[in-house]
Write a structure and sequence with these properties.
CATH architecture: Orthogonal Bundle
Oligomer: single chain
Structural class: alpha+beta
Strand content: 5-15%
Largest sheet: 4 strands, mixed
Radius of gyration: 21 Å
CATH topology: Cytochrome p450
Mean pLDDT: 92
Bound molecules: protoporphyrin IX containing FE
Order of helices and strands: EHEHHHEHHHHHHEEEEHHHHEEEE
Length: about 400
């Protein structure tokens, strides 16, 4: 039996329970077995502690001012030349590159081929991870994903490990300083490998998972947010000069369209929540999508897009879309930035990658292509855009 929880307070209560363990990815185990989001208890705590080191406060400033602008410019320039851009395809291109940087997947400099290969792999991994929602042959997808994982290990993970092992050797010999090492997940994992149980296959899947967690979520957030902005704003380009409002638009869209519409758990023992009791071994489905539209929390217009809505004390504008409790999203600040305060200086604010990408696109006149309407992805029951044609201002 499955217990379904769809109210905001109940969802928060369930997500915080330590006796409920992850079960969302049971069908996608070929990709998701023993990766962070699937671990529980002490093994999860230890690995999360190590990986969190990459996302310290100073990392975001370094990332938004140094890594991000370069990658965005490189990815955007071919589209500026043609004046056409499919948001889903562009999202993959830019976010695959950004995510590979902090995951620690090396690519030859400016290699379009490596980007294309990684994009294809990521599409496949993401279809496998969310296999429970697939509308096509699941075994065929699993077989394809296993083959792709082999290639991912040989072509990307092993060379990246060899490169970092050499750097660590140079550090030991005094030829490099701590600050010369890349700041990425693979690097921190290799340095703690003897303390964490990380055989090669687990390390490869962890790399694939991080690439997926970082890219796939933000790609679909980008497309949903742009769509909402096109529907809501009379003059979308005006948001370029009001980035705090633009960030609120992105957060409001994340509330309405959480990357994962549900979280799922299985109980390790009988659990008494405030409103429901769960038996040992029972599955619990927490609807983030419905909790985020709870009218008692977000008001009578909870189901509509209103980035200027008043929020109650302690209620985040993105609702529960980044989860809560032990599996709360590690990339929240990276994707969504920090929440502004009354005295926030817009020039110094940390906006998150999705807002910054949309701002850049709007600054280049992004608007829907009137001749080619967008379409949802038919291969999954999830609410994802499969294609979203847009036009940019003529160069
Ligand atoms: C709009 C963008 C994103 C959304 C909506 C999102 C959403 C989520 C959610 C709902 C969870 C919790 C899953 C659960 O409770 O079962 C989660 C976990 C996680 N997310 Fe994100 N995420 C986003 C971006 C990112 C980015 C950019 C990264 C890159 C580092 C990332 C890394 C992770 C990791 C590593 C976990 C697992 C944490 C753990 O199990 O301890 N996410 N995310």
């Amino acid at each position: 039996m499955t217990v379904v929880i769809s109210d905001y307070a109940g969802a928060m209560d369930a997500l915080r329970q330590r006796d409920l363990r992850q079960s969302l990815y049971d069908e996608g185990a070929v990709i998701m077995s023993r990766v962070l989001v699937n671990l529980h208890g002490e093994e999860h705590r230890q690995r999360r502690l190590v990986e969190s080191q990459v996302f310290r406060r100073d990392f975001f400033r370094y990332y938004e001012t140094e890594v991000f602008p370069r990658t965005l410019e490189e990815c955007l320039s071919p589209y500026l030349a043609t004046g056409r851009l499919d948001l889903v395809e562009f999202g993959y291109r830019v976010l695959v590159n950004l995510t590979a940087d902090f995951t620690g997947i090396d690519r030859p400099a400016n290699s379009t081929d490596a980007t294309e290969t990684l994009m294809a792999m990521l599409r496949l991994f993401s279809r496998t991870a969310i296999l429970a929602h697939s509308t096509v042959d699941r075994d065929a997808i699993r077989r394809e994903a296993l083959d792709a994982l082999d290639t991912f290990e040989t072509d990307f993970v092993k060379p990246s490990i060899a490169h970092r092992t050499m750097l660590l050797h140079d550090l030991d010999n005094g030829r490099l300083m701590e600050g010369d090492l890349p700041r990425d997940i693979l690097m921190v994992l290799l340095r703690k490998r003897s303390e964490l149980d990380l055989p090669d296959d687990v390390l490869t899947r962890e790399m694939a998972f991080f690439a997926l967690a970082g890219a796939h979520t933000s790609i679909h957030t980008l497309t949903h947010a742009v769509h909402e902005i096109f529907q809501w704003a009379t003059d979308p380009a005006a948001l370029v000069d009001d980035p705090l409002l633009l960030q609120r638009c992105v957060l409001e869209s994340i509330r309405l369209h959480p990357s994962s519409p549900i979280a799922a758990r299985r109980s390790l023992c009988p659990v008494a929540l405030d409103t429901v009791s769960i038996d040992e071994g029972e599955r619990v489905e927490i609807s983030l999508e419905m909790a985020n539209r709870d009218e008692r929390v977000f008001g009578t217009d909870a189901a509509s897009f209103n980035p200027q809505r008043d929020l109650g004390k302690g209620i985040s504008p993105y609702g529960l879309s980044f989860g809560m409790g032990m599996h709360a999203c590690l990339g929240l600040n990276l994707a969504a930035g920090t929440l502004p305060r009354d005295d926030t200086d817009p020039a110094q604010h940390h906006y998150g990658t999705v807002t910054l990408i949309i701002r850049e696109l709007l600054a280049h006149g992004l608007h829907p292509d009137p001749k080619r309407p967008p379409a949802k992805d038919p291969t999954t029951a999830r609410d994802l855009w499969g294609t979203y044609p847009t036009l940019l201002d003529a160069p």
